[in-house]
Amino acid sequence: MKLFVSDIDGTLMDKSKQIRKEDIDAIRLAHQQGVQICLASGRMYEEIKVVIDMLAVPCYAICQNGATVVGLDGTVIGANKFQTDLALSVQQITAPADLVTVICSAEGNYVAVRTTETERVGQRFLTPLIVNNQVVLDISKGMPITKFSIYGEVPLLEQMLVTLDQHFGGRVTASFSDPDGIDVMPGGVDKGAAVESLMQLLGIRKEETACIGDSFNDLAMFRSCSRSFAMSHAHGAVLRTATHQADTVDQALNHLLAV
């Protein structure tokens, strides 16, 4: 048995939220040949399910950069969330007026207010952002938070990564997930840890795995898989971390099937 893990945005899906027919055909062929398919994304499951439906192939899902792992039947098989005090602290630090912070749970993606900028950011999601001006109060009452996504100008985001490291160290995992966005998860939660838990569950060895991605939040799963493919348009540091480079998902799948 083999496992193939694909990132979604910038890898399987383009900026227009379209998937190449060649990639869909390759995934379907791999599935027919017994390869287990997994989609790994910063998106929540309801969004990933939209992509699974487009593929028309049963897929495992690693959601919100590893916060949740979902089985072929839609059942949660692994979950992580912020402790309440830590979630409140992260929210306070990541909520300056010059950035857009999206607060994520397994049930939805929230913003505290609706602005022109939150409307712009919301267009990249596959399900609507939920406006909740009491979201901080809800967090204090135990609302389960799985991830924070922060969007803005790159220098501000780079400084935010430094600030998060200074305040929290290993208590959070933070990295760029979009050219203009960073994701913040609980410490130790990332795509790589989720891939490893799925490998263990399925009884699949590292040498039977391959993955593909295009951003810094994919590096952890690159390290967890025997063959890792960075999309050719990825940042140089991402390209150097992967064992291979590919222009498309079907190129990476063809390599896996040939082994």
Description of the structure:
With 259 residues, the protein is an alpha/beta fold. The protein folds into 2 domains: 2-79 and 189-258, 3-Layer(aba) Sandwich (Rossmann fold), CATH 3.40.50.1000; 84-186, Hypothetical Protein, Haloacid Dehalogenase-like Hydrolase, Chain: A, domain 2 (2-Layer Sandwich), CATH 3.30.1240.10. The chain is built from 10 helices and 14 strands. The strands form 2 sheets. It has an 8-stranded mixed sheet, sandwiched between helices. Helix 1 (21-32) packs parallel to helix 10 (249-258). The protein is globular and about 50 Å long. The mean pLDDT is 93.
Q: Which terms would index this structure?
A:
2 domains; 6-stranded mixed β-sheet; alpha/beta; Rossmann fold; Hypothetical Protein, Haloacid Dehalogenase-like Hydrolase, Chain: A, domain 2
Task: Describe the secondary structure blueprint for this structure.
Layout lengths: L1 E6 L13 H12 L2 E6 L4 H11 L4 E4 L4 E3 L5 E4 L4 H10 L6 E5 L4 E3 L4 H7 L7 E2 L3 H6 L6 E5 L2 H15 L3 E7 L2 E6 L4 H12 L6 E5 L5 H6 L2 E5 L4 H6 L2 E3 L2 H10 L1
Parallel strand pairs: 1-2, 1-12, 2-3, 7-8, 12-13, 13-14
Antiparallel strand pairs: 3-4, 4-5, 6-7, 6-9, 9-11, 10-11
**What is the share of helical residues?**
25-40%
CATH architecture descriptor name of the largest domain: 3-Layer(aba) Sandwich
Number of domains: 2
The helix count comes to: 10
Q: How many DSSP E strands?
A: 14
Rough outline: globular
Beta-strand content: 15-25%
Rg, nearest Å: 18 Å
Order of helices and strands: EHEHEEEHEEHEHEHEEHEHEHEH
Quaternary structure classification: single chain
Within CATH, the superfamily of the largest domain carries the name HAD superfamily/HAD-like
Structural class: alpha/beta
Neighbour order of strands in the largest sheet = 5-4-3-2-1-12-13-14
What CATH first level of the largest domain would be assigned?
Alpha Beta
CATH topology of the largest domain: Rossmann fold
Largest sheet: 8 strands, mixed
What is the average of the pLDDT values? 93
